[in-house]
Amino acid sequence: MLDAVIDEVRGRRIRIGAHWLADFASCNYLGFDLDPEIAASIDEQVRRWGTHPSWSRLLGNPRLYPDIEERLTELLGAPDSLVLPTITHIHSFVLPVLTSGGTLMLEAQAHRTIYDGAMTAAAGGATVHRFRLDDLDRLAHLLRRAPVRAPRVVCVDGVNSMTGNPPDLPALARTCREHGALLYVDDAHGFGVLGERDVDETCPYGMRGNAVVRYFGETYDDIVLVGGFSKAYSSLLAFLTAPTWLKEHLKLAAPPYLYSGPSPTASLATVLAGFRVNSQRGDALRADLYRKTERVLDHLDALGVHTPNVSGSPIVEVPLDDADDLHIVSKLLWDAGIYVTLAAYPLVPRASVGFRVQLTAANSDEEVDELLTAITALAERSLLQTSRDRGAAALSGSPALPRRVQDRGTPRSC
């Protein structure tokens, strides 16, 4: 399940060599990668613009770019937005500009690409400190000690790529605003899934998929939201929100706008088509995704198997009882026709070694049945970490959203 060559795709079935598997390693949460309406949008734009607009963005922007930024800004309810090729580009080149020799506070479980951006900022003279989401008092202490005349930036994940949990964003935003700091949020896995809450929402993910800031009812005051289209929208493009003055500054100060090759025309076309499908069918897709995810989480509960996911998001991490059993577990899943993301030491701490299940709207109920059968077989062999092993520790990284704990025993609908 590592460095595999996938020879064929049929829906969420993949063929590796002669072996067919149900794919639970994809991040295409809404199933846009397989949507016929979105795929059909490519041909017209390629005929109009060619396969690749090879200007840097500073030299020339096909109309597709400003159209995307206008639609994105409206969807997010942000002051303005800037699209660049990837989130990694943004962390590596925008984060050092925002920090500019000041102080950067990095959450301990933030994504590796944020860490790499922090190290680039440190090489440029920034001071980097670490903190944990369950210790905002330490964050406040670090902010009080940081020089007030230099930028102070606090970096966190939105929906965490392993636990599936978002942070207590209102508490983080409040702490940052009290100390004059900028909150920088990477919501790669939340954009397209979580969104603004409303009495008419079809599931607890909220509506419109407009990311974690709107999900928590926050404003963009002193918040930069970073996200990407490569997951829920299945397109190669990323973005950040910013006031217009900061957006114009980053066009010159951050190298990707000037020096990076742009995204292919097909990706730009599918982003625009994705906006249309999201507005028409997105909430129904999210409701179906939530239903399938709840099947998996409820099954783990019934088996007494631990997962750190307390939010109900479609990222379900399943730690092993013994980290040394990963090769056994991966072979059993492979033989059962289940493809997942493996989490091996030292990529994760030994206590977190296991596998990650990523549900998508395109996974069938039959495929979910196969997954549940495979998980049951692993649990019966005592290969998985049990809830008794971890207990309340599951909440330690996500104090804001213990909804699955609060809702236990009540209908999970809005």
Description:
The chain is α/β, with parallel strands linked by helices. It has two domains: 8-33 and 282-403, Aspartate Aminotransferase, domain 1 (Alpha-Beta Complex); 37-277, 3-Layer(aba) Sandwich (Aspartate Aminotransferase, domain 2), CATH 3.40.640.10. It has helices at residues 36-39, 42-49, 64-76, 87-99, 112-123, 136-145, 169-178, 211-215, 244-253, 255-259, 265-303, 326-335, 365-380, 387-390, 403-406; strands at residues 8-10, 13-16, 19-23, 81-84, 103-107, 127-131, 152-157, 182-186, 223-228, 238-241, 315-319, 338-339, 341-343, 354-358. The chain has a seven-stranded mixed sheet, with helices on both faces. A four-stranded mixed sheet has the order 1-2-3-12. It is globular.
How many domain units? 2
Strand order of the largest sheet: 4-10-9-8-7-5-6
CATH class of the largest domain: Alpha Beta
The CATH architecture of the largest domain can be named as: 3-Layer(aba) Sandwich
Query: What's the overall geometry?
Result: globular
The averaged pLDDT comes out at: 93
Helix share of residues? 25-40%
Number of strands: 14
Class from helix and strand fractions? alpha/beta
The N- and C-terminal alpha carbons lie at a distance of 37 Å
Order of helices and strands: EEEHHHEHEHEHEHEHEEHHHEHEEEHHH
User: If helices are DSSP runs of H or I spanning 4 or more residues, what is the number of helices?
Assistant: 15
Low-confidence stretches: 390-414
Q: What does the radius of gyration come to? A: 21 Å
